[in-house]
Amino acid sequence: MAVIEVPAHLVRDQIRALRYAFQEACRMANEAVRQRDYYRERALSAECALMEATGGCPEAAADPCLKAFGLRCRACAEAMDKEARYL
């Protein structure tokens, strides 16, 4: 069997490329999660506003409203999740 010699600079370039590909894949995955969370929060906010505007908010009589604490009621989350299961 013949031995093939590979120049050292090609080996270094290949190792750098593999390392960069892994880092880029991690960066893209983190970006996708960030976008998913951002659009989920926007959808929750829109659903909460819609329920408040139409008088369908089950937490309207509750003191205090969870929205004041940066939270959403379970009804808003369930209504939003029914419409957009991929979020």
> Portion of residues in helices?
55-70%
Shape descriptor: rod-shaped
Summed up, the helix count is 2
**Strand/helix succession:** HH
Computed structural class: mainly alpha
Mean pLDDT: 80
The major pleated sheet works out as:
none
Number of strands: 0
Calculate Rg over CA atoms: 25 Å
Proportion of residues in β-strands: under 5%
Ends apart, CA distance between termini = 55 Å
User: Low-confidence parts lasting 5 or more residues at pLDDT below 50?
Assistant: none
Overview of the molecule:
This protein is an all-alpha fold and 87 residues long. It has helices spanning 8-53, 74-83. The protein is rod-shaped, with a radius of gyration of 25 Å. The termini are far apart. The mean pLDDT is 80.
Question: What structural keywords apply?
Answer:
mainly alpha, 2 helices, 87 residues, 0% strand, rod-shaped, 64% helix, single chain
Give a brief outline of the structure.
64% of the residues lie in helices and 0% in strands.
Detail the topology: elements first, then pairings:
Layout (H helix, E strand, L loop, with lengths): L7 H46 L20 H10 L4
Helix pairs in contact: 1-2
